[in-house]
Amino acid sequence: MVNHLRTYSLLLTLTLGLSGCASWFADDAPAPQVHLVKVEVVRAKLLEQKFKLHFRVDNRNDSDLTVRGLIYKITLDDIVLTEGESNEWFTVAPHSRGFFKISVRTNLWPQVRQVVEMLKNPDQPIPYRLEGELKTGLFIGNDVHVLRNGEIIPGDFIPERHQ
Hints:
Blueprint: H1 2-19, H2 21-25, E1 33-44, E2 49-59, E3 65-76, E4 79-86, E5 90-92, E6 96-106, H3 112-119, E7 126-136, E8 142-152
Antiparallel strand pairs: 1-2, 2-6, 3-4, 3-5, 3-7, 7-8
């Protein structure tokens, strides 16, 4: 009985002691921001489209920010363009920006009518939504929730045809 009480006391002490560890790493520093800055069309075939997604990470803190990747989902209007995970590591200096690219493949054939309708007027903005998690931290991970709404203008990404 005494051994059980000691074990229970030890577990209780460890649990209470470790619960304070979370406050060691918490601070009031602003969270990094993630922006989708460009959607580059690499190749567009009937059943497969390849894009390069260009992202910018803004580090608004006084210390380096280690990025371990991004879990993402991007929708154009109500169409899921792509979703996935990047595991690219890089460091963003204090109060600066870092850039990275993700290559993606998708099949928009099931939504081709909606896409054609969106592209009828290439100067008309299309709303997009970026949601996911930015994986940060070197030894202790700190995932930052990402939610950004914006607009893209398709005409900015359609190359002119030379005749």
